[in-house]
Amino acid sequence: MRYYLFLLTFLISGHCIAAAKNAPETRTGPSQEQQQRALDNLQEPMYKPLMERYILDELKAVRQDQQQLREDVTKQVTHAQLDTADRALIYTTDTINNVFFIITATASILVLVGWNSLRDVKNKVEDIVNTRVSVITDEYEDRLKILEEKLRVRSEEILSNQERISITNEVHSLWMRANLESDVANKIEIFDDILKRKPEDVEAIAYKADALLELNETAQAIELCNQALNIDSDYGYAYWQRACAYALIHEHADALADIKMALDYSPNLRNELLHESAFASLHDNESFNSLLAGENS
């Protein structure tokens, strides 16, 4: 049997070697020079990032982090409460043991000093024990009150921080939606959602004013700019948006004054003077042209 297996193996090996010798030579792949030349001829990346997928993954990660934070806070508060209960039980046990030691020691001393009756000893011991227990109980209650107050304050801080983190994540998500939104009305709704969560967000107020200007709502845009400047008088973009509104209604003096204030607080806006369509009516104004001359110089 082994002889037949060896013979069969030998025949199959010989057949494979003969087939390999008679097989035509395979073509080799492209050389390194051809590969490098193909890479140099590429004009654009062979892939494009999926921005929408990236945003969804970021939102999912934010929700998971928020859930994990909520679980961690719950565990910390639970462990703190359990530690407090354990300390209370230990303290109570030690107190009771000390009371029994005091009772025993007091009874021994009273017998030694020669008190006349066990009734007197009993009454005296009861008074001493009651006094001592009352003092220890009051001290223990005071300590518990202090500890409960600290836990309450700490819990409020944790919940407040968690709420602020949640609001910040929601506002960040809304800003990302606003940057991707092309419809002006939808943008205004998103800015309103942001202002519901952060009423004093001057950036959201200014960008809402910008969206209203695209709808020719100049009066409401000016009102929003004034609201933003009442919150932060150093915010240059609010002056810029109000200048755009004034230019659209041909109040050139007010528009130029706001442009100067905007450039003082945000010098990088100087590059947008010629590109801002709202300033088209100011192109023949000498003061506006002087600002442009200052930019060119």
Give a quick set of tags describing it.
Serine Threonine Protein Phosphatase 5, Tetratricopeptide repeat; mainly alpha; disordered N terminus; about 300 residues; single chain; 2 domains
Radius of gyration: 41 Å
- Indicate the proportion of strand residues: under 5%
Please identify the structural class as seen in this structure: mainly alpha
Provide the domain count. Answer: 2
Shape type: elongated
**So how many helices?**
10
What is the tally of beta strands? Answer: 0
Task: Give the helix proportion (percent range).
Answer: over 70%
What pattern of helices and strands is seen along the backbone?
Answer: HHHHHHHHHH
Alpha-carbon distance between the two ends: 101 Å
Ranges with pLDDT <50 over ≥5 residues?
A: 1-8, 23-29
Largest sheet: none
Mean pLDDT: 77
